[in-house]
Design goal:
- Helix 1 packs antiparallel against helix 2.
- The chain is built from six helices and no strands.
- It has a domain of 119 residues: NADH-ubiquinone/plastoquinone oxidoreductase chain 6, subunit NuoJ (Four Helix Bundle (Hemerythrin (Met), subunit A)).
- By secondary structure, it is mainly alpha-helical.
- The radius of gyration is 21 Å and the shape is flat.
Length: 173
């Protein structure tokens, strides 16, 4: 039964990702990305990585994608081509997304109830288990990634500073 859910969410994620790449309307791109993030979070929950799945939902679907959607809405992309059949298709997509979210919530609650009887050290996907693996087996890649992100931050600041100073010099001339 879990393999059926895996294939279901994997298929939905692939289709939603194709919608993100192939759609020409930015609003459809963002909505497809929301469905893909929900599906990916569902896959993490099926793998019993609860923390990663919920953080993925909260950070990306809850914050970043809502910001993307806000930006797309601010672009004022009024398309006069919208007709009633297209609107009904989007209602169907909205209901489907809501059904996926409820299914994911059901799976999370089911996994949580099943894990209540287990000892805390045997539960996979908890913050403690992730921290233990991250800072023992994967310490070197973790530190190298943090160093790479620090270098990228310095590069972005220097590029922004250079662009800002060249913009100021152009205005003086």
């Amino acid at each position: 039964m879990p393999s059926l859910f895996f294939y279901f969410f994997a298929l939905i994620m692939v289709l939603a990702s194709m919608l993100v790449v192939l759609s020409r309307n930015p609003l459809y791109n963002v909505l497809g990305l929301v469905v893909a993030i929900f599906s990916l979070s569902s896959l993490f929950i099926l793998l019993e990585a609860f923390f990663v799945g919920i953080i993925l939902l909260m950070v990306y679907a809850g914050a970043v994608l809502i910001f993307f959607l806000f930006v797309v809405m601010c672009l004022n992309l009024n398309d006069p081509v919208f007709t009633t059949p297209q609107q009904s298709r989007f209602k169907l997509l909205g209901w489907f997304t809501a059904l996926m979210f409820l299914l994911e919530l059901f799976l999370a609650v089911k996994s949580y109830v099943g894990a209540l009887g287990l000892a805390p050290s045997s539960i996979r996907g908890t913050i403690e288990a992730i921290g233990r693996v991250l800072f023992t087996e994967y310490l070197l890649p973790f530190e190298l990634t943090s160093f790479l992100l620090l270098i990228a931050l310095f590069g972005i600041v220097s590029l922004a500073k250079g662009a800002l100073s060249s913009g100021i010099e152009e205005k003086k001339i």
